[in-house]
Amino acid sequence: MLNQRTNMFSSLAILFSLVSMMLGTVLADKSAGCGKTPTITSKTYTTTVNGKSRQYIMKLPQNYDKNTPYRLIFTWHQLGGSATKIVNGEDPNKGGALPYYGLAALDKNNSAIFVVPNGLNNGWGNSGGEDVTFFDTMVKTIEADLCVDTRLRFSTGFSYGGAMSYALACARPKDIRAVAVISGGVLSGCAGGNDPVAYYAQHGTSDSVLNVSGGRQMRDRFVKNNGCTALSSEVQPASGGKSVKTVYKGCKEGYPVTWVIHGGDHNPSQKDSGASTPFAPGNTWEFFSQFT
Ligand SMILES: *[C@@H]1O[C@H](CO)[C@@H](O)[C@H](O)[C@H]1NC(C)=O
Ligand SMILES: *[C@@H]1O[C@H](CO)[C@@H](O)[C@H](O)[C@H]1NC(C)=O
Predict the structure, then answer these.
(1) Distance 187 CA to ligand 2 centre (A)
(2) Where along the chain do its domains lie?
(3) Cα 39–chain centre separation
(4) Within a 10 A sphere around the Cβ of 278, how many other Cβ atoms?
(5) Fewer CB under 10 Å: which end of the chain, C or N?
(6) Ligand showing the shortest atom-to-Cα distance for residue 285
């Protein structure tokens, strides 16, 4: 009798811990905004960070559902760019980036909320960490109102926007699931920079603005942090105008590094010869959407 009861209690205990584990994975990652009727819509917002007025544009997915935890994707513009230019896109044949770096068009499942911040002086100088603080403020404000999967925040950008994504990978490794750095440099700093973050980057060997050796050094920080096996020699673009994608081996579970090298210049919309579309959007979307 006593034995039976003990058995029953321990079975119940196991059942309860299984159920709470399952609930934990289902519930724990939802932001406070889940279940709330949202006040945020797809438009420009203004906030104050360190006494400065800051703007960002929100894009909610079609048929936003307050109970669905969405991905949160930050898209940072280049030097001289703006949030509006990211939203509208610029001619990819003239060195521009597609709207939302081409990612919104690839989000066929309406799985993402996009955040498009606007830089002070059209850049991301991140003086005293003010742009990272801006990021923190946006995350807090957005997630209090909208339903976000807090494990699935992403950041991408070209040039200065890549620099800002890198700065976040350095300074906010726990808050950012993955970054995609398109022809970046270390222009927004790297506070911390000792923790793993899933890292995609692409760079041109003929980059005349931010040289490729800088891009390789940035990549190597996360090759090391993520525990990946370094390559014995540098990968070069294939002949005939084709980029080469390297997926690093040996990385810690959940912390991949993918590196794409091409022969082009400083360009967010580099294409492989014969291709009709730039490869950054597809590569970035593939990299981000491996995390669920
Ligand atoms: C949409 O979701 C399905 C099911 O999760 C997934 O297999 C597919 O890859 C997703 N499509 C895109 C474009 O992300
Ligand atoms: C690449 O750029 C970095 C940072 O601006 C600079 O320090 C370095 O000298 C450059 N290297 C080459 C090979 O041009």
Answers:
(1) 13
(2) 31-289
(3) 24
(4) 21
(5) N
(6) 1
Mean pLDDT of 54-75: 98
Distance of CA 14 from the midpoint of ligand 1 (Å): 34
Q: Tens digits of per-residue pLDDT, 120-156?
A: 999 999 999 999 999 999 999 999 999 999 999 999 9
Pocket of ligand 2 (CB under 6 A): 211, 213-214
For ligand 2, atom 7, the nearest C-alpha belongs to: 214
Q: Does ligand 1 have an atom closer than 6 angstroms to the CB of 232?
A: no
| pTM for the predicted model, two decimal places | 0.91
List pLDDT tens digits, range 149-192. Answer: 999 999 999 999 999 999 999 999 999 999 999 999 999 999 99
CATH number belonging to the domain at 31-289, selected among 3.30.2160.10, 2.70.98.10, 3.40.50.1820, 3.10.290.10: 3.40.50.1820
